[in-house]
Amino acid sequence: MLCLTGDWMAQSGRVPALPPDGLKGIGSGQTLAFDTTGIGRWDSGLIEFLWDAKRAAIAAGASIDGATLPPSAQKLLGLLPDGEPPPPPARRRGLGPLNWLGGVTLEFLTETGTLTTLLANTAKGGALILVGRVRMRPVDLLANIKDAGPSALLIISVVNFLLGAILAFVGAIQLQKFAADIYVANLVGVALVREMAAVMTAIIMAGRTGGAYAARIATMLGNEEIDALQVIGIPVEDYILLPSILALILTMPLLYLYGCLVGIAGGGVVAISMLNITVAGYVQQTLGAVPFDQFVFGFCKSIVFGILIGVTSCRIGLKAGRSAADVGIAATRAVVTGIVGVIVLDSLFAAIATVVGF
Where are the domains positioned within the chain? Predict the structure, then answer.
């Protein structure tokens, strides 16, 4: 019989520990009971002491009779294991190239399937918007469009203007040697419309908007807002992901066209100031050098870039952790993934265009 008296409050710091030889006299096959008639107030300190006694008795081969304990103490003591769990076996560390390759492959296939599902749900949601069957608030879509479109015009203008000016400056230095000054307009127009405007605009949006999407969703995940939406029954795809992705799909082509215009203007400023070219001659040469199908090609690329940035950023935000540090990690991953993905897709578009002779 183990007699327990007084208050057993862990916060008081006066809860005694079970001595190593406290149950020395107990033998195998005996039963350890408790006398709790003199116990006053108690909390987890009592449960900790009882657990030590329980493990010591079981280690000695005795059984436990907790019938005299308070009912709540009996329940708490019953939830605790009879002994310390055995330590896990030490994992052997080796190279394991096949294991590493298999893990990477499975992770890649899993992420590919998840992104494909997310993209399919977005396309389905976009189609259902036309018939009014998606619970997406128009104010959310407009807010995302404003953030991804008008709010990004300043940085798009500065980067593309300077890009066009750099192309014109570099081209002017070389073309002056051959008395082909007027072809600076061709160089700037084709380079911007076909490649640079779409790529630079996408890179800017990946760093500006894609990172913001990932950080926002990761913050909502850490604040358990995503869990609250799922408990209420509101689809996360319709409420958060669909407005964000659609905003990028709608604004990226317009920003691309705007970037082309500003970049050509930047190249014109440099060409007109450095070379013997008039404004009318520069505009006429540009219109003749850049056919309409080049704008269509860049327009289609910008839409694909917008889909890539939106889907990957939202996915990275959804699989982020719940701490404050994970928000920054998710934003960084979204920016890096978006920039690398844009460059890879642009290379793929260039290869396809070369194969088909476009």
Answer: 2-79, 118-355
